[in-house]
Amino acid sequence: QLQLQESGPGLVKPSETLSLTCTVSGGSTSSSDYYWGWIRQPPGKGLEWIGSIFYSGSAYYNPSLKSRATISVDTSKNQVSLKLSSVTAADTAVYHCARHQGVYNWFDPWGQGTLVTVSS
Amino acid sequence: AIWMTQSPSLLSASTGDRVTISCRMSQGISSYLAWYQQKPGKAPELLIYAASTLQSGAPSRFTGSGSGTDFNLTISSLQSEDFATYYCQQYFRFPYTFGQGTKLEIK
Protein backbone atom coordinates (compact mmCIF):
# COMPACT_ATOMS: atom_id res chain seq x y z
CA GLN A 1 0.00 0.00 0.00
CA LEU A 2 1.38 3.37 -1.00
CA GLN A 3 2.28 5.68 1.86
CA LEU A 4 3.61 9.22 1.83
CA GLN A 5 5.32 10.87 4.80
CA GLU A 6 6.25 14.53 4.96
CA SER A 7 9.13 15.74 7.10
CA GLY A 8 11.05 18.92 7.78
CA PRO A 9 11.47 21.80 10.22
CA GLY A 10 8.32 22.84 12.00
CA LEU A 11 9.51 26.42 12.46
CA VAL A 12 11.00 28.73 9.84
CA LYS A 13 11.97 32.37 10.21
CA PRO A 14 10.46 35.06 7.97
CA SER A 15 12.41 35.69 4.75
CA GLU A 16 14.10 32.27 4.97
CA THR A 17 13.50 29.18 2.83
CA LEU A 18 11.11 26.42 3.87
CA SER A 19 12.38 22.95 2.95
CA LEU A 20 10.28 19.79 3.17
CA THR A 21 10.70 16.19 2.05
CA CYS A 22 8.07 13.64 1.14
CA THR A 23 9.24 10.03 1.49
CA VAL A 24 7.32 7.51 -0.58
CA SER A 25 6.97 3.88 0.51
CA GLY A 26 5.09 1.07 -1.16
CA GLY A 27 5.55 2.69 -4.55
CA SER A 28 8.17 4.31 -6.74
CA THR A 29 8.76 7.95 -7.62
CA SER A 30 10.39 6.72 -10.85
CA SER A 31 7.09 5.40 -12.18
CA SER A 32 6.07 6.98 -15.47
CA ASP A 33 2.40 6.68 -14.46
CA TYR A 34 2.34 9.23 -11.68
CA TYR A 35 2.97 12.82 -10.67
CA TRP A 36 3.75 13.92 -7.15
CA GLY A 37 2.19 17.07 -5.80
CA TRP A 38 2.35 19.41 -2.84
CA ILE A 39 -0.77 20.99 -1.35
CA ARG A 40 -0.95 23.24 1.68
CA GLN A 41 -3.65 24.18 4.16
CA PRO A 42 -3.35 27.22 6.47
CA PRO A 43 -4.78 26.54 9.94
CA GLY A 44 -8.56 26.54 9.80
CA LYS A 45 -8.61 27.31 6.07
CA GLY A 46 -8.94 25.56 2.73
CA LEU A 47 -6.57 23.77 0.40
CA GLU A 48 -4.12 25.33 -2.06
CA TRP A 49 -2.20 23.39 -4.70
CA ILE A 50 1.48 24.41 -4.76
CA GLY A 51 2.82 22.32 -7.63
CA SER A 52 3.49 18.87 -9.04
CA ILE A 53 6.44 17.01 -10.53
CA PHE A 54 7.01 14.03 -12.82
CA TYR A 55 9.85 11.53 -12.32
CA SER A 56 11.72 13.18 -15.20
CA GLY A 57 11.82 16.46 -13.29
CA SER A 58 9.16 18.21 -15.35
CA ALA A 59 7.22 20.39 -12.91
CA TYR A 60 4.14 22.62 -12.81
CA TYR A 61 3.56 25.36 -10.26
CA ASN A 62 0.76 27.54 -9.00
CA PRO A 63 1.39 31.08 -10.32
CA SER A 64 0.01 32.49 -7.05
CA LEU A 65 3.31 31.60 -5.39
CA LYS A 66 5.13 33.96 -7.74
CA SER A 67 7.99 31.58 -8.53
CA ARG A 68 8.96 31.08 -4.86
CA ALA A 69 8.33 27.33 -5.01
CA THR A 70 10.72 24.69 -6.33
CA ILE A 71 9.83 20.99 -6.38
CA SER A 72 12.38 18.28 -7.08
CA VAL A 73 12.42 14.49 -7.14
CA ASP A 74 15.18 12.11 -6.03
CA THR A 75 14.24 8.73 -7.45
CA SER A 76 17.26 7.04 -5.80
CA LYS A 77 15.90 7.97 -2.38
CA ASN A 78 12.23 7.73 -3.42
CA GLN A 79 11.68 11.25 -2.20
CA VAL A 80 10.03 14.44 -3.43
CA SER A 81 11.14 17.78 -2.04
CA LEU A 82 9.64 21.24 -1.75
CA LYS A 83 11.48 24.50 -1.26
CA LEU A 84 9.59 27.74 -0.70
CA SER A 85 11.69 30.89 -0.54
CA SER A 86 11.16 34.25 1.15
CA VAL A 87 8.49 32.93 3.48
CA THR A 88 6.15 35.11 5.50
CA ALA A 89 3.55 34.38 8.16
CA ALA A 90 1.06 33.78 5.32
CA ASP A 91 3.00 30.61 4.46
CA THR A 92 2.18 29.05 7.83
CA ALA A 93 0.26 25.90 6.95
CA VAL A 94 0.06 22.14 7.02
CA TYR A 95 1.92 20.92 3.94
CA HIS A 96 0.76 17.69 2.32
CA CYS A 97 2.28 15.66 -0.46
CA ALA A 98 0.02 13.54 -2.65
CA ARG A 99 0.13 11.42 -5.79
CA HIS A 100 -1.84 11.93 -8.98
CA GLN A 101 -1.99 9.76 -12.06
CA GLY A 102 -1.25 11.76 -15.17
CA VAL A 103 -1.03 15.51 -15.47
CA TYR A 104 -4.74 16.27 -15.11
CA ASN A 105 -5.97 14.07 -12.34
CA TRP A 106 -7.20 13.80 -8.78
CA PHE A 107 -4.98 13.37 -5.71
CA ASP A 108 -4.82 9.96 -4.08
CA PRO A 109 -3.40 9.11 -1.64
CA TRP A 110 -2.26 12.01 0.52
CA GLY A 111 0.37 12.17 3.20
CA GLN A 112 -0.65 13.05 6.75
CA GLY A 113 0.91 16.48 6.39
CA THR A 114 3.39 18.48 8.43
CA LEU A 115 2.76 21.82 10.10
CA VAL A 116 5.20 24.58 9.28
CA THR A 117 5.01 27.80 11.26
CA VAL A 118 6.71 30.94 10.00
CA SER A 119 7.73 33.07 12.94
CA SER A 120 10.76 34.86 14.30
CA ALA B 1 -7.45 30.35 -12.81
CA ILE B 2 -10.76 28.52 -12.53
CA TRP B 3 -12.69 29.76 -9.50
CA MET B 4 -14.98 27.53 -7.51
CA THR B 5 -17.91 28.45 -5.32
CA GLN B 6 -18.75 25.71 -2.86
CA SER B 7 -21.93 25.91 -0.79
CA PRO B 8 -23.00 25.87 1.89
CA SER B 9 -19.91 26.57 3.97
CA LEU B 10 -21.61 25.08 7.02
CA LEU B 11 -24.29 22.43 7.02
CA SER B 12 -26.07 21.20 10.14
CA ALA B 13 -27.82 17.85 9.82
CA SER B 14 -28.84 14.77 11.74
CA THR B 15 -27.94 11.11 11.38
CA GLY B 16 -30.13 9.59 8.69
CA ASP B 17 -30.62 12.86 6.79
CA ARG B 18 -30.00 13.26 3.08
CA VAL B 19 -27.73 16.21 2.32
CA THR B 20 -26.33 17.85 -0.80
CA ILE B 21 -23.24 20.00 -1.21
CA SER B 22 -22.82 22.13 -4.32
CA CYS B 23 -19.77 23.25 -6.26
CA ARG B 24 -20.04 25.79 -9.08
CA MET B 25 -17.19 26.58 -11.49
CA SER B 26 -16.33 29.91 -13.09
CA GLN B 27 -16.01 28.06 -16.41
CA GLY B 28 -16.83 24.63 -17.77
CA ILE B 29 -14.61 21.75 -16.72
CA SER B 30 -16.42 18.81 -18.32
CA SER B 31 -16.28 16.11 -15.60
CA TYR B 32 -12.80 16.89 -14.27
CA LEU B 33 -13.95 17.16 -10.65
CA ALA B 34 -13.10 15.31 -7.45
CA TRP B 35 -14.61 15.34 -3.97
CA TYR B 36 -12.64 14.78 -0.75
CA GLN B 37 -13.57 14.21 2.88
CA GLN B 38 -11.33 15.58 5.61
CA LYS B 39 -11.58 14.86 9.32
CA PRO B 40 -9.82 17.03 11.93
CA GLY B 41 -6.08 16.47 12.02
CA LYS B 42 -6.21 14.07 9.08
CA ALA B 43 -5.34 14.24 5.41
CA PRO B 44 -8.13 14.61 2.84
CA GLU B 45 -9.42 11.32 1.46
CA LEU B 46 -10.71 10.88 -2.06
CA LEU B 47 -14.44 10.07 -2.28
CA ILE B 48 -15.43 10.77 -5.88
CA TYR B 49 -13.48 11.40 -9.09
CA ALA B 50 -14.52 12.19 -12.64
CA ALA B 51 -17.53 13.95 -11.06
CA SER B 52 -19.48 10.75 -10.39
CA THR B 53 -17.15 7.77 -9.99
CA LEU B 54 -17.04 6.40 -6.46
CA GLN B 55 -13.53 5.72 -5.20
CA SER B 56 -12.87 2.11 -4.26
CA GLY B 57 -13.72 1.60 -0.61
CA ALA B 58 -15.90 4.71 -0.31
CA PRO B 59 -19.43 4.01 0.97
CA SER B 60 -22.17 3.80 -1.64
CA ARG B 61 -24.25 6.42 0.20
CA PHE B 62 -21.98 9.04 -1.42
CA THR B 63 -23.04 10.11 -4.92
CA GLY B 64 -21.48 12.68 -7.20
CA SER B 65 -23.31 14.33 -10.09
CA GLY B 66 -23.00 17.14 -12.59
CA SER B 67 -20.83 18.26 -15.47
CA GLY B 68 -19.73 21.52 -17.03
CA THR B 69 -20.05 24.15 -14.31
CA ASP B 70 -22.42 22.69 -11.70
CA PHE B 71 -21.67 19.71 -9.49
CA ASN B 72 -23.19 18.10 -6.41
CA LEU B 73 -22.12 15.68 -3.72
CA THR B 74 -25.05 13.91 -2.08
CA ILE B 75 -24.96 11.75 1.03
CA SER B 76 -28.11 9.65 1.05
CA SER B 77 -28.35 8.78 4.74
CA LEU B 78 -25.86 10.43 7.07
CA GLN B 79 -23.86 8.22 9.39
CA SER B 80 -21.94 9.45 12.42
CA GLU B 81 -18.61 9.00 10.63
CA ASP B 82 -19.70 11.36 7.83
CA PHE B 83 -19.51 14.49 9.97
CA ALA B 84 -16.41 16.12 8.49
CA THR B 85 -15.36 18.80 6.02
CA TYR B 86 -15.81 18.22 2.29
CA TYR B 87 -13.88 19.82 -0.57
CA CYS B 88 -14.33 19.80 -4.31
CA GLN B 89 -11.31 20.09 -6.65
CA GLN B 90 -11.05 20.77 -10.36
CA TYR B 91 -8.26 19.18 -12.37
CA PHE B 92 -9.32 20.42 -15.80
CA ARG B 93 -6.62 23.05 -15.98
CA PHE B 94 -3.60 24.30 -14.02
CA PRO B 95 -3.57 25.65 -11.44
CA TYR B 96 -5.61 22.97 -9.72
CA THR B 97 -8.10 24.69 -7.44
CA PHE B 98 -10.24 23.62 -4.51
CA GLY B 99 -13.57 24.79 -3.19
CA GLN B 100 -13.63 26.64 0.11
CA GLY B 101 -14.96 23.60 1.94
CA THR B 102 -18.24 22.57 3.56
CA LYS B 103 -18.20 21.66 7.22
CA LEU B 104 -20.90 19.11 7.96
CA GLU B 105 -21.84 19.21 11.62
CA ILE B 106 -24.28 17.39 13.82
CA LYS B 107 -27.49 19.34 14.41
Structural summary, described in words:
The complex is a heterodimer of chains A (120) and B (107). In chain A, 0% of the residues lie in helices and 52% in strands. Chain A is mainly beta. Chain B contains no helices and eleven strands. In chain B, the strands form two sheets. In chain B, strands 2, 4, 5, 6, 9, 10 and 11 form a seven-stranded mixed beta sheet that branches. Chain B has a four-stranded antiparallel beta sheet with strand order 1-3-8-7, with no helix packed on it. The interface between A and B is medium-sized, with 23 and 24 residues.
Outline of this structure?
The complex is a heterodimer of chains A (120) and B (107). Chain A is 0% helix and 52% strand.
Shape of chain B: globular
For the residues shown, what is the average pLDDT of chain A?
A: 96
What is the strand tally of chain B?
A: 11
Succession of helices and strands of chain A: EEEEEEEEEEE
Poorly predicted runs of 5 or more residues of chain A: none
Strand content of chain B: over 45%
Which structural class fits the helix and strand makeup of chain A?
Answer: mainly beta
What share of residues are in beta strands of chain A? over 45%
Content-based structural category of chain B: mainly beta
Work out the number of β strands of chain A: 11
Helicity range of chain B: under 10%
User: How many strands, which pairing sense, and closed or not: the largest β-sheet of chain B?
Assistant: 7 strands, mixed
H/E element sequence of chain B: EEEEEEEEEEE
Helical percent range of chain A? Answer: under 10%
Give the overall form of chain A: globular
Termini separation of chain B:
36 Å
Which value, in Å, is the CA radius of gyration of chain B? 13 Å
The gyration radius over C-alpha positions of chain A equals 13 Å
* Mean pLDDT score of chain B: 97
Name the biggest interface: A-B, 23 and 24 residues
Unreliable residue runs of chain B: none
Topology:
The complex is a heterodimer of chains A (120) and B (107).
Chain A: E1 3-7, E2 11-12, E3 18-25, E4 34-41, E5 48-54, E6 59-61, E7 69-74, E8 79-84, E9 93-101, E10 107-110, E11 114-118
Parallel strand pairs in A: 2-11
Antiparallel strand pairs in A: 1-3, 3-8, 4-5, 4-9, 5-6, 7-8, 9-10, 9-11
Chain B: E1 4-7, E2 10-13, E3 19-25, E4 33-38, E5 45-49, E6 53-54, E7 62-67, E8 70-75, E9 85-90, E10 97-98, E11 102-106
